[in-house]
Amino acid sequence: MHNVEHLRFLRVLSFRRKFGIEAQNKIELLNSICNLKLLRYLDLSHSNVEEIPDKIGTLYNLQTLLLRFCYRLTSLPDSIGNLKHLRHLDLSRTSIEKLPDTIWQLHELHTLILKGCPKLTQLSINNATDVINLRCLDISETGVRELPRQMFKLENLQKLPKFVVGKDSGSNIKELGKLNDLHGDLDIEGLENVVNVEDAREANLIDKKHITKIKLIWNGDIGGSVEARKVLDGLQPHLDLEELHIHNYGGTTFSHWVGSPSFSCMTRVRLIDCKNCFMLPPLGQLPSLEFLEITGLDKVVRIGDEFYSDGSVITKPFKSLEFLYFSGMEEWKDWAFVEAEDGGVFTNLKELWLGDCPKLKGASCLPDYLPSLETLGIKGTSDHLVASLSNYRYPSLKFLKIEGCRKMKTFPGGTLPSTIQKINIRECPELVSLSEEGWPSNLKSLQIMMCRHSMQWNLGMLTSLTSLEINCIKEEMDAYPKEEGQLPTTLTSLYLGDLLKLKSLNGSALHHLTSLQSLSIKGCNQIQCLPQLPTTLTSLRLSFLPKLKSLNGDTFRHLTSLKQLTICYCEQLQCLPQERLPESLSELYIDHCLLLKPRCERGIGEDWNYIRHIPRITIDYQGI
């Protein structure tokens, strides 16, 4: 459709994702569209449009123009200002660098979406009274670091996800005070530029009843502790707020309103990189708090009673909390717990993550009893913390993740809760042995990643294990599994990935995995051929095997249950087995196998007769 002029009565036109055409034809089509004078709705989203013609200014009836995800689009013509009836303009996720001044002449414009335009660095409004009808101005995820002082004139704004406090001639935070109808999310950046702390109070966040989420962001140097505290005091939001984020705050303590039980609707709190704070606010008082993240509070040494309440009686601190995340707490050494009147704290906590807290150690550094905990993640902490897990009562724990414990040599160091069903171990380079005792009796899934010595481990004692993933191991190894019994016969899924020095698979040991249904081999650079595989396989995936040259015909003859076969990025694989693949096979997927692709061409490929019976065949994303 290079010419649409004959559709002269058209009101709605969408070419969403349909502009994968040559440049000359693209220009012709765009010019043709610009002749549809009655057009009211035009959607060119997700296309490779690079330029909008000046002629678009003749679409006088256009009300909606959607250009989102047009990554190649860098500018708009000045003629856009002629679209006097335009109400909705979406430029999100484009490469727009600057808006034409004429955009601010669009009196009927209600919605201007610029989200995710990183090259857009400034927003210059000539006369805000010309766009007085603007309801939504979204500049989130842009490079805009300063807003014009005329922002307060946009008094009908309902959605302003990002407000930037400027320096000198830029916008003043008190201008927010005149935007009384804001709804939804509000990020306030550049709070280090607030010169008069009274301006923060004049922003009047306490009366903006329709704001549900507020993010307060200081940029650059976090100095000015006293001033930062006064600014935070003045930014107290309304009591029905649901979500609060505070980033890079420079005060040593938080304002009295942070953690006040009066915020009865608050469900999520994030405190990020508040590096001068030495004490946490009393967040345990928030009755509806479900999610809490505390990251980069470098000066916190001890978490004690102040975390649970401000001294008032709280019957059950953190009674609604389900997710708790600590990270980057470099000096944190001690975590004290309070006894609540009716049975403890964190009674509904389902996930607990401790990341990069190197000084947290000892047998009492975690809550002793977390009755609802299902997931525990430990990263970059003291090895003593991992070893002490047997001291805690977690009757519901199902998933344990251990990451970056660089001195840990043996796992597990004690008896783990029998309820654990999944364990992930990642980046523990000194781990050389797995104990034969202490494993959860119900363990179903084990993932070992980036641990040098794991190929030598005997996992045969894990008699409930059904899924095993061994990934990114650099250890020199001729064959794996090394011997029969090294892997449990209960396995139904086995993933071997990025074992760069593994030369071959031990067919006799694999053949004894009589329950194995899914096998994936990825990034094993030295493997040249496949051994005999378990006859129970239903899915086989081979990917990024640069030296794989052939597939064993005897292997595939016995795979009478195989349903799915995937072969990706095996550049030296020359052909399929010289016999029909199993009759059970229902899906064959081949991608980036240069030698194999022409042999599988429908009707004429040399291997076509071996695969023609397969119902679904896909080669390089194309069905054949």
UniProtKB/TrEMBL annotation:
<keyword id="KW-0433">Leucine-rich repeat</keyword>
<feature type="domain" description="Disease resistance R13L4/SHOC-2-like LRR">
    <location>
        <begin position="2"/>
        <end position="84"/>
    </location>
</feature>
<dbReference type="Pfam" id="PF23598">
    <property type="entry name" value="LRR_14"/>
</dbReference>
<dbReference type="InterPro" id="IPR032675">
    <property type="entry name" value="LRR_dom_sf"/>
</dbReference>
<dbReference type="InterPro" id="IPR003591">
    <property type="entry name" value="Leu-rich_rpt_typical-subtyp"/>
</dbReference>
<keyword id="KW-0677">Repeat</keyword>
<dbReference type="InterPro" id="IPR055414">
    <property type="entry name" value="LRR_R13L4/SHOC2-like"/>
</dbReference>
<feature type="domain" description="R13L1/DRL21-like LRR repeat region">
    <location>
        <begin position="173"/>
        <end position="296"/>
    </location>
</feature>
<protein>
    <submittedName>
        <fullName>Disease resistance RPP13-like protein 1</fullName>
    </submittedName>
</protein>
<dbReference type="Pfam" id="PF00560">
    <property type="entry name" value="LRR_1"/>
</dbReference>
<dbReference type="Pfam" id="PF25019">
    <property type="entry name" value="LRR_R13L1-DRL21"/>
</dbReference>
<dbReference type="InterPro" id="IPR001611">
    <property type="entry name" value="Leu-rich_rpt"/>
</dbReference>
<dbReference type="InterPro" id="IPR056789">
    <property type="entry name" value="LRR_R13L1-DRL21"/>
</dbReference>
